[in-house]
Amino acid sequence: MSANGILLNDHSSLKFRVQSCRPGNRGVKRSLAAVIIAAAALIAPMTAALIASTAAVAAEPTAESPAKREPAICQNVRFSDVGWTDVTATTALVGQLLRTIGYKPSIIVLSVPVTFASMQNKDIDVFLGNWMPAQEADRKPYDADGSVVVIDANLKGAKYTLAVPAYAYDAGLRDFKDIHGFAAVLDNSIYGIEPGNDGNRLVLKMLKQDQFGLGDFKLIESSEQGELAQVERAYRNKQPIVFLAWEPHPMNMRFDLKYLNGGDEVFGPNFGGATIYTVTRQGYSAQCPNIGRLLTNLKFTLRGESEMMAAILDRHEQPDVAAAEWLKANPPTTKAWLDGVLTFDGKPAYAALAHAAPPPRAGGFEQWVVSHKIPVGDVIAVAIEKIKTHGTLLFDGISIVIRGMVEGVTAALRVLPAPALIVAIAALAYALRRSWTLTAFVALALLFILNQGYWIATLETLSLVMVATLASAAIGIPLGIAAAHRPRLFAALRPVLDLMQTLPTFVYLIPTLVLFGLGVVPGLISTVIFALPAPIRLTHLGISSVPRPLIEAGEAFGATPMQLLWKIELPSAATTIIAGVTQCIMLSLSMVVIAALVGAGGLGVPVVRALNSVQVGMGFEAGFTIVLLAIILDRISRPKEPGATP
């Protein structure tokens, strides 16, 4: 069969006739064109469908789809938490949410100024607690250089100003201008939160400028929880108190409080009305657009934040646990926050979250031990609460005595003009050490402290150290003597002394703050507890090291135990005992910064304030002042070594 016949038979359904296969034949050309057109008509719809299907598959997010995935660096999200419970709550919420969709958030506790400086250095990615306008001065330099980017407001309707309990408000303390009239019952004090905080700075500026006649008032700086402990103490005793307050916060539900009028020029209108913004470091949203979308979606409410904070403060839940419970109980809010957001591997976040399997629970022996936790913390908390409830009069009496002693020493030091006091301390140094070099150093060091503007703070610190050392020596030296004479007593004391020296010093501040309130009293008691082991141990060592022949000689001459102590043991152990007192002075001075966290004042305040506000100059000045004071006290109080020159 010819080729033309085969072609005709195969395509007999086509409505044309193939006459020849020669290239020059017109019929063949027309026939081939018709075949191509017909084939194209059949293939075109299938090709279009295939292209559309391929595009849809390519557009579908998968784990292998790099266009939909953020860079690996975006998986680690660094948040700043400035330590306020509202910021802790919101940061925990977002951190928990990110953790469930494949990210690895980390939360670092920093002050507000340090937060902005860290964002400028690209060490922090996100900050959810930019209270405006209170933090306007903090943020302004970084707005100017573009190193901090404002994403959006995450909460509106907040406020931040001074407040009082309702009973003080009803008594007439309703306005900023009324505060001065209550100066006596307020002890000329206003309570703030951590040193360096923006609200504290506004109050300090108000006091410095003598606004509302408050130039003779002082601001007691501590922390959010320290301030609230003092408010609770005053509230229980129906005492007037003026303190920094803000909303949202459970304090508005725990206490019947009123915000003071008339503070617009200090905190702004509407009781320091504030809007809280989410801010990031420069270029973060462009680098990590998925996180940027989530941050844009974030919108909190006053009620929602208060619920979270109540779980942390009132039910004592860990922030992560409280956040997980809140997210589980509020799915509509979670869905709104995750609108358009993907997991780190590129899947729709809310759908992935809804179908995520619960995390596996640990089992076995470890889980059994954890589930049967010994309630040490709960027992201590209950005991402190009962002591606080039933021992108010006792603790108030102790507070009055200790506060009176410290304030009395401070007042005595301040009676003398600074030049006269410098001369007196220099003369004391010469009388004790007989060294003109030391005398000149003491005078020049004190003149330098006066020149730097830390004279009053130095006197406050010196008073605290003197009273703490006196109390520690009065308790420690007799205990050391008794322990040296009674080995069983020292065996019983040894673990207690080990605990006092190794327990973190911040732990001392918690019960003393609850029992005695803010101020110099908890600072001094914590200092005494920390410094007390030194005189006990060194007194025990000195008495125990008295040569036995001396004791036997005294006994041979018929000396009584008391005579042996005063005539033989104490003179022989004097150098070691004085070394214990010197150690006590140094340990007391080392507590000065920590004591500032509970409102003790002194040189610790500018150190903490400089740390929280990134003021390098102030921090160096205050730190150098503490060093000079430590050298002066050490050189004056240390025992003179035989044959050594001062």
Basic shape: globular
Largest sheet: 7 strands, mixed
Strand coverage percent = 5-15%
Which stretches are low in confidence, meaning pLDDT under 50 for 5 or more residues running? 1-67
Average pLDDT reading: 83
Chain oligomer state: single chain
Number of separate strands: 9
**First CA to last CA: what distance?**
130 Å
> How many helices?
33
Helix content: 55-70%
Structural write-up:
- With 646 residues, the chain is an alpha/beta fold.
- Strands 1, 2, 3, 4, 7, 8 and 9 form a 7-stranded mixed sheet that branches.
- Helix 27 (520-531) crosses helix 30 (561-590) and helix 32 (604-613) packs antiparallel against helix 33 (616-637).
- 39% of the residues are buried.
Short description:
The protein contains 33 helices and nine strands.
Task: Please give a handful of descriptors for the protein shown.
alpha/beta; 9 strands; 646 residues; two-stranded parallel sheet; disordered N terminus; 63% helix
Furnish the topology, listing elements before pairings.
Elements (H helix, E strand, L loop, with lengths): L2 H8 L15 H34 L16 E6 L3 H16 L3 E6 L2 H9 L5 E7 L3 H10 L2 E18 H5 L12 H4 L2 E3 L6 H11 L9 E3 L3 H13 L6 E5 L3 H4 L2 E3 L4 H4 L1 H4 L1 E8 L2 H4 L1 H9 L4 H12 L5 H11 L1 H7 L11 H6 L9 H8 L4 H15 L1 H24 L2 H16 L2 H17 L2 H31 L1 H16 L2 H12 L3 H12 L1 H12 L3 H9 L4 H30 L1 H5 L7 H10 L2 H22 L9
Parallel strand pairs: 1-2, 1-3, 5-6
Antiparallel strand pairs: 3-9, 4-7, 4-8, 4-9
Helix pairs in contact: 3-15, 3-16, 15-16, 21-24, 22-23, 23-33, 24-25, 24-27, 24-28, 24-30, 26-27, 27-30, 28-30, 29-30, 30-33, 32-33
